[in-house]
């Protein structure tokens, strides 16, 4: 390995270490996920998202120059047609000009023939559509930066209450609970009108609360309650309810709203 390669490798290691520290301070859960990916040499959209956010160009260069990521593959963020467009937006948003210039000038298609490129894009699109059909990815857009916080991450705080103890001559903890304040990790701004409970519900809103089945797979049954109208001499609907087709449990009001089921 020559001197230039040594410097490049050292720069990459330093950047990964610094980014890792930033993510640990931002969210231990993000740090764990990031560390696992990097240790497995996985430089995907999530890793590059944070590399751009914190302006570590060497990480982006390493991933692209070593073909560790396909920039033409569909983005996990449905607002963008592919990963490259998403990353370019992040670079513009965070004013990472060096990375922006690199992304706009770079092409992951060098030394690959056209047929191979088309096949890769077709395969990526096909796999993406298959995954979308089988898996549900929750979505809640930040009011400030318009990012899906389930992708970029969100922070919550723990509220700890202390009272002074005459017996112990010091403050002692009397209770602790999670605060309902939710902060977007992308823009570090508070999210209004959303709670931890609501976000947790969004993660499982497609699933039956009783048996856990995916309602988009097992289906929903609508039931009508009827009463006999003596004046008309026939039964008439008086109410309707919606149930999981597998266990017959009634779905929640929020699930009806999510699936756009009207009474």
Automatic annotation (TrEMBL):
This is Uncharacterized protein.
